[in-house]
Amino acid sequence: QVQLVESGGGWVQAGGSLRLSCEASGPTFSSYSVGWFRQAPGKEREFVVAISNTGSRRYSSNSVKVRFTISRDNAKNTVYLQINSLKPEDTAVYYCAADPGVTVTSDPSYWGQGTQVTVSS
Percent of the chain having pLDDT more than 70? Predict the structure, then answer.
């Protein structure tokens, strides 16, 4: 059982950077894989990037893997998403989600409330 809270979203100009944080509460955070998803207005939620419970493996969609970097600090119960060279099409609500084990599924067990990222041109 974990609770997730995202932060770090906001309004930025194209080409800028953001670092999103996902803070978790619970004693077994290190046993959960964590992923970031996003949902733009009028579109379905999509997978962005994920990290295994140990942090040794990372997964991402081909469209974002150059600009998006996920990391985790289990001592702080936090997963980060560094986004560089932001584009207007990155505008979306970003959610972190967690599953027990090494891999985040397409329907994770636990979700945060989301944080809005808006990229202007």
Answer: 100
